[in-house]
Amino acid sequence: MIVLGIETSCDETSMAIYDSNTNSILSSKISSQVELHKRFGGVVPEIASRNHLIKLEEIFNEVVNDAKIDIEDIDLIGVTNAPGLIGSLFVGVSFAKGLSYSLKKPLIGVNHLAAHTLSTELEHLELSPPYISLIISGGHTHVYYVDKAYNFNLLSYTIDDAVGECFDKVAKKLGLPYPGGPEIEKMAKNGDENRLVFPIALKNDKLFSFSGIKTAVINTIDENKYTAADICASFQKSILKNLTHKFDIILKEYKVNKLVVTGGVSANGYLRDKLTKYYQKKGINVYFPSKRLSTDNGDMIAYTAYKFFSKKIFMGLRETAYDVRPNID
Ligand code: AMP
Ligand code: MG
Fold it and tell me: Is the pLDDT of residue 321 over 90?
């Protein structure tokens, strides 16, 4: 099958074409709106929707040309329909519906979080469920147990801020540009990660909470006693400790030897390195997507659409319609 994947859930407009015969991506485009939102210090939903609308047709023509196919060769269309910014999702889903109707080809709604998880399978051919999936992004911190049939069972989530949001807010307080995650990672390289210790919230619970760390770091910045590099390095280490602490609780209940880590924050080299080493010692392989597939992309939507379609899973994470669902449940 030739599958078109469409992703517009936040501030990246992206499409890709996947060929199931060769299990490969024939073409892919990611158009980031980061520069447009930078001066606002975060994503402005209305600006995001409008720019998806402007970009979609151009990107569609580019991926079709790059893949050297005709529009009629597309057998299946997958589009992110949840979760995300409602206006942004609407633009992508409306485009996909129009295309599906005019080409008379099936359309499948893809859950963005499931797609992040499955993106790792595109690059690690040996990987298949069951595994535990951790999604750490600007909007989500979610842990799923993914069974052999690709059922996603929610094991844990954050009760307040997402990890990426916490990175972005700490960076903002330090006067670093948006998005703050990569800036903190850079700054942390020159700092002492043991200079400060920030808390682990809900110590006996597998649910995450990051607003306490965020406040503790912001208060520390206000004290003007420590260098930004030391604060960034100590903050990053405390995020790592929070993740492994909760995972150790989860792993007591769920015996798996595969952990899949995705979402924008998974691009962080320090977290990649430390998580890999920590779990290797426990006999658990940690899988990450390449940095390109860590952020939002059409590749993961096309691949997940194919996987779900071929397994007759039409619901992603309990999705029942192609209509948009901004929240995850
Ligand atoms: P997403 O929500 O998946 O699009 O990812 C965006 C989030 O990932 C933002 O909160 C970024 O600050 C964060 N992020 C991106 N790169 C890094 C990094 N190297 N370290 C930490 N966070 C990052
Ligand atoms: Mg995402």
Answer: no
Q: Which ligand 1 atom sits nearest the alpha carbon of residue 178?
A: 12
Instruction: Indicate the number of domains in the chain.
Output: 1
Alpha carbon of 11 to ligand 2 centroid (Å): 9
C-alpha span between 1 and 259 (Å, rounded): 29
Q: Has residue 60 been placed in a domain?
A: yes
- The answer as to whether 151 is a domain residue is no
pTM of the model: 0.91
How close is the Cα of 166 to the center of ligand 1, in Å? 10
| Residue 220, pLDDT above cutoff 50 | yes
Domain annotation covers residue 313:
yes
The CATH number that applies at residue 83 is: 3.30.420.40
Using the atom order of ligand 1, give the atom closest to the CA of residue 12: 4
Residue 272 CA to ligand 1 center (angstroms) comes to 13
Q: Domain span at residue 6?
A: 2-117+293-318
What is the rounded average pLDDT of the residues 301-322? 74
Strand spans (E) along 184-262: 258-262
| pLDDT for res 42 | 83
Backbone CA torsion sign across 282, 284, 285, 287: negative
Which residue type does 10 have?
A: C
As a whole number of angstroms, the distance between CA 218 and CA 118 comes to 35
Confidence of residue 320 (pLDDT cuts 50, 70, 90): very low
What is the distance between the alpha carbons of residues 261 and 239, in angstroms, rounded to a whole number?
Answer: 14
Which mutation among 32, 88, 238, 265 tests ligand 1's pocket best, with the greatest number of atoms within 8 A of CB? 265
* Beta-bridge mates of residue 32: 12
**Is 299 a member of any domain?**
yes
Q: What is the 3-state secondary structure (H, E, C) of 50-95?
A: HHHHHHHHHHHHHHHHHCCCCHHHCCEEEEEEECCCHHHHHHHHHH
Strand order in the sheet with 107-111: 24-32, 12-19, 2-7, 76-82, 107-111
